[in-house]
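Retro notes, item 3 of 5
We never archived the inputs for the zinc ion complex last cycle. Fixing that now. Sequence and ligand:
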Amino acid sequence: MRELIPGLWDMDTLPGAQAYIWEWDRGVTIIDTGLPGHVDRLLDAVTALGYRSDQVTRIVITHGDADHMGNARALARHTQAPVGCHAVEKEILEHPERRPWPSRGLGRALRPLFTLAARMPGLRALPVHPQELYVDGQRLPEGFRVVHTPGHTPGHIALVHPERKVLIAGDALNNRGGELHLPPRIATPDPENARRSVERLMRRYGKEIQVAVFGHGPPILEDAGPRIAAFLDRLGPG
Ligand SMILES: [Zn+2]
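Structure as it came back at the time:
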């Protein structure tokens, strides 16, 4: 675990995707939870930061993939914190097997493999009932704006904190190997929409982003807005 900017902790020791802990004046908020079976690591991190488990104020899930929602149910049980996601993603958190997959290309060909993998312990997303449902533009008490960024999944969200100039991208973008990418097409049923989502996010919040953190890949701690804008430029006309 490491502190990226004051109060933003990167849980980079979880298998699967990275989770983030945000300290604020009412406790800590956890964004994403890694692959299932590792709730102890999240709880230990909360303790290490000096908080009791009942000081976890909410668990925000960017989208209903096992590597992001994996420990949400166990974490909610231990902390009594509400789980929140976009209203459209609720169905996937409650019924992970309904997550849509690409209907074309490699993603479609690999679908039997995904279905098989999704049943294995350690990769299986355990359903969780979200008590908080967000809509685009909603402001969370922590100061984050919810940005609906559909494409990778229908109810994917990113979070932007305009005052702290932070983007928590989830899988709207990834920075695998230190290079920006749109979400992988094999796991993205609507890649065109995934791209439009990032373009729209940048139009609305690009100037307010200095720091960006991702579900996959290292953080960008300076000039993240201009770097993401340059990445979109390189993609050319959509
Ligand atoms: Zn992911």
